[in-house]
Amino acid sequence: MVVIKGIAASPGISIGKAYVLEDDEIVVNRIELPRELLRAEVKRFKSAQKATHRDLDAAEAKVLKLLGKQHAKLIDAHRLILRDTLITREVPQRIIREGVNAEFALSESLEAVNQQFEKMEDEFFRERRHDLFDVGKRLLSHLLKQSKRSLSNIIDSNCVLIARNLLPSDTLGLHESKISGFATDLGGKTSHTAILAQSLEIPAVVGLSDISRRLKTGDQVILDGDQGMVIINPGPETISKYQRAQQKSLQDERALESLRGQPTVTLDGKSFRLEANLDAPEEIKSILALQVDGIGLFRTEYLFLNRPAPPLEEEQAKAYAGIVKALDPRPVVIRTADIGGDRLADLGIDGPKNETNPFMGLRGVRLFLRHTDLFKTQLRAILRASLKGNVRILIPMVSSVGEVQSARRLLSQAQAELQAEGADFPKKIELGIMVEIPSTAMMLEAFLPFVDFVSIGTNDLIQYTLAVDRINEHVTHLYDPFHPAVIYLLDHVIQTAHKKGRWVGICGEMTSDPQAVPLLVGMGVDSLSVSPRMFLRIKQAVRSLRYGPLSGFAAKALACSDSEQIRRMLADQGLQ
Ligand code: PEP
Ligand code: MG
Questions:
Q1: Is 459 in the pocket of ligand 1 (CB under 6 A)?
Q2: Is-contact 63 93, C-beta < 8 A?
Q3: Ligand 1 lined by 470 (C-beta under 6 Å)
Q4: Which of 195, 265, 388, 462 is 20 to 30 Å apart from 511, CA to CA?
Q5: What is the set of active-site residues?
Q6: 438 φ/ψ angles, rounded to the nearest 5 degrees
Q7: Whether the CB of 283 sits within 6 Å of ligand 1
């Protein structure tokens, strides 16, 4: 039995057989396809070709910048290979003739050419086969990326998925599969992959460094998403211990059920709005059952991931209207898409690709202000959906007042267009900003004339304040919500907004940590938007507190020089 410690990313226990997803190694299986699917398979191959051309363009720009024209010629050679009839004609012909999948047809064609290269006497020409394989590998990885999305096709039921890394777009696909949990080498607690796992109620442990190499498919494992560890080949006693823990946590959850519909109020009568974060539409049923006060953060990125083109206005309006109607009259805060960072979407636009620091790059409102057509389409869809209930608009990753002014201008344009088209929509809609960049938190007063409310995104605010990448497992120990600088900014934002009569919500993962709740309650925030999984537990935490003694706590915490002292102070008050 071997125990590997990692980072607890999504709670719950899963016991089962491992399925190790090969990531770097490209494994190509021969799959025979029925006749009627062959045309679609050729189309899939052509779209991988297009994506590879785009890769080469990006690679060329990079090489040009770093190494100059001479070296960029190599990319020309790769482009020629990609245009060669071997790729453009022979692979599609093989798909049709042999009735097989594109990956297999491509690898067969590459192997045939490889054998010809190997026979060549001239070393220079013989070595060109590496270029051919380079291009072939790029093509294959695009093809496999597409098929990896339907993990449900390859994974046995009830297994624990083990991978080097999973992207948010992969994780979205997991709810269709029957996996009971996942563990990855890479990743941090507030990565979007971890957040999605919580939303989809899949137990997960990340940051395990080399688990994907230590396990093989079929090994027995226990994944403990509460403690953040994976046990390989557990003995019978350990298995029964974990089975008992599974039962106990089910009982604990049932015990919280009586809190549904009860007010979120402290023992001394201070009320809070307790809302839920919504990341994927599948969650709506359980969110409604929790009797939430609203949706404090509707992350709309799921609509943009895993597709070659952005969703049209009609599709978006329908998706938003469904949620808004289900919640009416309770509010739904719809956030415009925060694409970028670790949520990369290949939308066929000149978007963030191969950035060195994607979390500091073209993300959220920055990307949408470059592609105002996308921004306006989403705003129009939100406006149309807002007829069905109570909607607020939230803009992510704001770092300057100019961005808010531009967003407002686009909103007015969207309203004017809808009016001219005779469409029905409410004339007044609240617009708020995410405060998740330290400069915005510090300068909040300058933003307030342009916004109706603010929502603090602690996931990013902590990462940017402490310079700790939220998805990097090597610095997880430095990702500290109790750091005095974080507390200072939270308190500053809440007090500054309140002075100007704006309400403040918090929607980062910090709201779902029962240990952080006393601090947030003491700051007098108006709304806590939490992961649905933790909703009742957080309600229980608020209902067990007294607001009075906590109201000065943030000020006292600010006198501390490190988070250890702050945690100790909370513990002294019996709060941790
Ligand atoms: C945040 O940054 O806290 C937040 C809620 O946004 P996201 O996690 O989607 O970046
Ligand atoms: Mg954020």
A1: yes
A2: no
A3: no
A4: 388
A5: 192, 507
A6: -55, -40
A7: no
Give, for ligand 1, the residue of 297, 507, 509 to mutate: max count of ligand atoms closer than 8 Å to Cβ.
507
Ligand 1 closest atom vs CA 510: 3
Query: What does the pLDDT read at residue 253?
Result: 87
Say which CATH superfamily domain 35-143 falls into.
PtsI, HPr-binding domain (1.10.274.10)
In the predicted model, residues of the chain with pLDDT beneath 50 are 24-25, 148-150
**CA of residue 460 to ligand 2 center, whole Å:** 5
**Which ligand 1 atom is at minimum distance from the Cα of 338?**
9
**In sequence order, what DSSP letters do the residues of 348-395 get, joined into one string?**
SSS---S-SSGGGSS-THHHHHHSHHHHHHHHHHHHHHGGGSEEEEEE
pLDDT for the residue numbered 149: 44
pLDDT at 74 (0 to 100): 76
The one-character DSSP state at 88 is: I
Residue limits of CATH 3.50.30.10 in the chain? 2-24+149-235
Q: What ligand is nearest to the CA atom of residue 194?
A: 1
At the top level of CATH, the class of 2-24+149-235 is alpha beta
Q: Which H or E element spans position 410?
A: helix 401-420
Distance from the alpha carbon of residue 456 to the mean position of ligand 2, in angstroms:
9
- Look at residue 25 in the predicted model and tell me its pLDDT: 46
Q: Residue 101 gets which letter from DSSP?
A: -
pLDDT at position 155: 61
**Residues around the ion ligand 2 (C-beta < 5 A):** 436, 457, 460
- 457 within ligand 1 shell (Cβ under 6 A): yes
CATH class of the domain at 273-435: alpha beta
Task: Give the tens place of pLDDT for each residue, 540-552.
Answer: 999 999 999 999 8
